[in-house]
Amino acid sequence: xxxxxxxxRAFIDKMKESEELARxxxxxxxxxxxxxxxxxxxxxxxxxxxxxxxGPEPAPEQGYVRIPYWSALDYLVExxxxxxxxxxxxxANQVMEIVRTVSQWRETDGQPRQNYQTARRFTEILGHLPxxxxxxxxxxxxxxxxACRGQ
Amino acid sequence: xxxxxxxxxxxxxxxxxxxxASHFTRLALSCCTAQSPLRCVGGWxxxxxxxxxxxxxxxxxxxxxxxxxxxxxxxxxxxxNDPQTENPVLTFLSFLFQHxxxxxxxxxxxxxxxxxxxxTKGPRGTGEVRHYILQGYFSHQETLLRNMDAYxxxxxxxxxxxxxxxxxxxEQLLDVIEAFADGMPASNPLVQQEMQDMENLLP
Lengths: 151, 203
Hints:
Chain A is mainly alpha-helical. Helices cover 57% and strands 3% of the residues of chain A. Chain A is globular and about 45 Å long. Chain B is built from 10 helices and 3 strands, in the order ααααααβαβαβαα. In chain B, helix 1 (6-20) crosses helix 9. The longest helix of chain B is centred in the N-terminal third of the chain and has 15 residues, at 6-20. Chain B is globular, with a radius of gyration of 17 Å.
């Protein structure tokens, strides 16, 4: 279990306050060489929770929607790259679990949350993870189908 | 003088009670009013046995002795970034004094060495961050006031904000606090400030 300093924990608490601050936090973390150290604390803080993956929002133009970009995705892609490069199966499985959880999450009407940007980045993540993790994954094909189709 | 509103009176009473409370309670109150990351580093408060709720109620905790300060403010690991060895009190105080404007209320002459220890051995504020200390004096203590002003400014890097006790003694503090509360109403920090805080937390 990763132990953070008081200030580092305060930093993550700030990220939990709003999507805007979360985006800023992920951006700052990715500039650090030790960004990997924050992965577990961020996950434990719920910053990769499926509810945080944004759905479509009404656009300023009537009849249109906009699809916000989930700020956690860039960080997860970098973690997946790291897991693939170092063949870190434990880390890869943790990333895979996040992908699985978010993909299988359903709205109250039973529909998956529609975000093509999340789907696109998830396919990228899968490409970075070690093959053995992908092969062993019990990710249901239906769960990922919407992701692979890119909506 | 305009009539006092009940809320203003309440704020004033809080300030007055704070001046009589223990060291930690006073510091905690100062932290609360300075919009510090108190909640973020709540571990320090838990260590000090002063919860946020207690801070709000100004509940007085057990008296804190000099030895308690020394152990908590010990400088041997002041700069440690290792979560295993860091001193959470110093981490909190470092952030507080570097990035927040702090108003000390209720520090008396008998506690000067504590204040000096905290401020002279700790990090100074940078940029627009400044620290102030609110203290009451009688008119005949003007020489003392000047000396203390120089002392606080030169030795502790903080600015003395004096008020006269001639007419109402310590009760005057209530009016001072009320005037401050009216002039500096509490507000939520701007997003830009929050982002700057994050950058300061993770240099």
